[in-house]
Amino acid sequence: MNILSFNLLLAVVWASLWGEFTLFSLGAGYIVGFIALWLVQPLIGTSGYFGRVFAWIKLIVMFLYDLVVSSLHVAVDVITPTHRSRPGVIEMPLDVKTDAGILLVTNLISLTPGTLSLDISPDRKSLSVHVMFLDDPDALCKELKNGVEQRVINAVETY
């Protein structure tokens, strides 16, 4: 049994001990089980599971932060009488290798207001992105690579 399934089993046991199978009790059971498994990690052996969970949490939190910041940026541009948008298309080289990683990068970029994934090259080495605020293409490409793409690589492809 791998650690994820054992952690899920601990969450179900926790919820059954409390006598209610709600999302809150299952979530609390998952967290308690995660902490317990992390504490006994020297006994069960090291695993990439714990690093991957932290990488996914970081990915979700940072995506929500980017979502709020970009939503405010787009809203301010829409509300104000002067428009500062300079739309354009950039070609971003991809370091992510797996299909799941590419799918996640393209979807997270498209879900962020002000950016839209247009196309992936046939060799899967670059991604075309339409951007609402294109001041410096190189800086924006670097920001996307060091931000969204690097967090996806950490969550999906490492450990």
Radius of gyration, taken over Cα atoms and rounded to an integer in Å: 20 Å
Q: How far is the N terminus from the C terminus?
A: 18 Å
The oligomeric state is single chain
Biggest sheet, in brief? 3 strands, antiparallel
Which runs of at least 5 residues are low in confidence (pLDDT < 50)? none
Strand order of the largest sheet: 1-3-2
For the secondary structure, the number of strands is 3
Q: Pairing-aware structural class of the strands and helices?
A: mainly alpha
Count of alpha/pi helices: 6
Name the helix and strand elements from N-terminus to C-terminus, one letter apiece: HHHHEHEEH
pLDDT averaged over residues = 91
Beta fraction: 5-15%
Shape from CA axes? elongated
> Into which percent range does the helicity of residues fall?
55-70%
What count of structural domains? 2
